[in-house]
Structures are given as C-alpha cells and as structure tokens.
Predict the 3D structure of the following.
Amino acid sequence: MNLNQRIERLFQESIATKQRCLPLLAQPIREAAEAMVQSLLGGGKVLACGNGGSAGDAQHFSSEMLNRFERERPGLPAIALTTDTPTLTSISNDYAFAEVFAKQISALGHPGDILLAISTSGNSRNVVRAVEAAEEQQMKVVILSGKGGGKLSSLRREGDIEICVESGSTARIQEVHLLIIHCLCDLIDTQLLGDAD
Ligand SMILES: O=C(CO)[C@@H](O)[C@H](O)[C@H](O)[C@H](O)COP(=O)(O)O
Ligand SMILES: [Zn+2]
C-alpha cells in the first residue's frame, strides 16, 4: 500500500467509525450534555482527565468551556487535571502515578460536580482511580471510552453516563472522542443560549 492509499484508508476508517457510532452514541451524548448543564446551573463544574492524547482532549474541552466554543458567552467552569506539573509530579513521586487525578479530585470535587473521564481502553489505572474518587465526592461521572469500555464500564453507577466508541483502534477512538467533545460544547451552548440555527 503506498502513502496515498494509506491516507485514503485512514480517512475511510475514521468516517466509518463515526457513522457506526452515531446511532449508538447520540442518546448518551445528549444525556451527558444535559447533565453538564444541570451541574453548571446548580453552581457545579466539570473536571476532566485522561492520559496522552486523552490528556490533550481533557484540555481541549476545558479551554472551550473556560474561554468559548463557537458562540460568544461567559466562560464556564471546567478544570483539566492534566496541566499542573508540580502537582502531577509530587503526587506521582510521593504516592503513585495512579493517584494523580484522584488526589486532585478529592481536593477540588464537590457533590454535583461532573468528572469527564477519558480513556480509549477504559483501563488506565489513574483514570479508574479518578472515577472512584469522584464517586466518593458524590460527583456524577461521564466516561468517554472505547474497546468495550474496560474497567471503567464496570465502575459505572446509576446516574453516570458511558459514551463508548465501538472500535479497537486507539487513534480512531480518539478521533471520535474529539467529535463528541465538540458535540458536548455545542449542546451545552444550545441549552444555555438557545438554538443558533
Ligand atoms: O494519543 C495516543 C495514541 O493515539 C497516545 O498518547 C495514548 O493516548 C496513550 O498511549 C495513553 O496512555 C493511552 O491511554 P488510554 O487511552 O488507554 O487510557
Ligand atoms: Zn493520538
């Protein structure tokens, strides 16, 4: 397969994964956006975490909340738990890497807040611990996952929302996760500001 053929295959696989996910994920995406708006209107905030590309996704989401998405509006409270190097290194060094998000959630999380937990495998230990910590803080959890959902799927409690991308490829799952994050931003703005179209 030459390079152009590889590009064509990557585009086709990404498009097919998104099309396959639409009927399966529209409802949980809507439920997640509604839960986030309910939390925000009640004075809550969204904490977001993940590793590698998913750490970038957590920050992408929080920046669109704190600043703006496509429409003019006041900033909305969200924190990516992936950005504070002194905190990340000291928790990893003094306790364990598995605790990097959980310890921040125990300090920052309040009942009614939401955790956006992002993991393509659903098995990253620090994201699993984040969900456990969020549950201790009586926070609702929105799980963005793939590959069948992994351990995160079995942690899900009543009221939590799982958005699991049906794919075994980390890259394809991440591509759908970014689309879902943009759907969440659009749906949050639509609920707060009204329909723009
Ligand atoms: O972006 C990529 C691969 O596309 C990688 O950085 C990937 O995010 C990392 O390997 C993560 O550690 C994978 O973690 P997870 O999605 O299984 O929780
Ligand atoms: Zn990636």
Remarks:
- The chain has a mean pLDDT of 98.
- The chain has seven helices and five strands.
